Amino acid sequence: MRIGELAKATGTKAETIRYYEREGILPAADRTAGNYRDYSNEHLATLSFVRRARGLGFSTSQVKELLTLSDNDDKSCSDVDQLVRQQLKEVNRKIENLILLRDELSQMLQSCEASRIGDCQIVERLAQSPQVWR
Amino acid sequence: MRIGELAKATGTKAETIRYYEREGILPAADRTAGNYRDYSNEHLATLSFVRRARGLGFSTSQVKELLTLSDNDDKSCSDVDQLVRQQLKEVNRKIENLILLRDELSQMLQSCEASRIGDCQIVERLAQSPQVWR
DNA sequence: ATGCACCTTGTAGCAACTACAAGGTCAAGC
DNA sequence: GCTTGACCTTGTAGTTGCTACAAGGTGCAT
Q: Residue B97: what pLDDT?
């Protein structure tokens, strides 16, 4: 299949696929007589894997690692497990930070509500300290 | 104050401050006889504002908007409110996605636990469809 | 006058794409 | 057989928000 078809099948832009090839994430495809890339079902499977892992927040280098790990089956399981665990930790960290952030933002909005009659405090809140800003 | 002092006071690298100046986020400072940047307390307040807003996940262009909004006091409150609301929505979206992601990752780990004796399913799970990957 | 911390500008790098530009290929329609 | 249009090729530059040099200037203490 040609790059456009693969792109459609995986929801990836053709340019991104070429980028993955340049970066060694996706193996290079065969070429047709007219120098078009010609992808196999293995490519399709690999690219799906890559997109899914990226969607789960793995970096491209982690994805590369996952790919090589899944190539040699023995011993790989604990390494893969390790990577997933690390990623899970990272995700939890992000969630916690975002929740703090959400709380701050909604407090800002509430302080705006509260002072409908006067002028809202959002800018002051952002400026944080009670000094007049500008 | 010189750039290093401002940097220390706000927890920003000097290079980042110069970057903000180039990008028009922070107004240019006066210069000393020796061509060093010489910052005022207003700069300090503005930079604190910028860092705080960035820390809350506002993009640099949103920060610029917030800065200009807070410059002309009238009418600004509802616009600021709007920006904060938008940001809050975005943050909630991110949190939801991350929670989905977390669930998937921990399910992966559990399927690994479950099949201690056999080989773990993580790679298969990533590959998603039951086709053999590679 | 010499060392050192600090400053200046300019440029390049990071991640992970995305967006051109300028040109080649291929099938369909007239 | 020739054109049109969709698709493909390579290469390069842009995006966001910094960060990291390199090569040189300033300011102050010893």
A: 83
Task: Check: CB of residue A71 under 8 Å from CB of residue A32.
Answer: no
C-alpha to C-alpha distance for B2 and B24, rounded to whole angstroms: 19
Query: What are the tens digits of pLDDT across the range A72-130?
Result: 666 567 888 888 888 888 888 888 888 888 888 888 788 766 655 445 655 555 554 32
Rounded to 5 degrees, what angle do the CA atoms A27, A28, A34 make? 160
How many distinct structural domains can be found in chain B?
2
**CB contacts, 8 Å: B98 with chain A:** 91, 94-95, 98
Structural domain includes residue A106: yes
Contact B126 A66 (CB under 8 A): yes
Contacts of A98 in chain B (CB under 8 A): 91, 94-95, 98
Domain range enclosing B32: 1-57
**Residue A67 lies inside a defined structural domain of this protein:** no
Whether residues B88 and A109 touch (CB distance < 8 A) is answered with yes
Q: Are residues A56 and A24 in the same domain?
A: yes
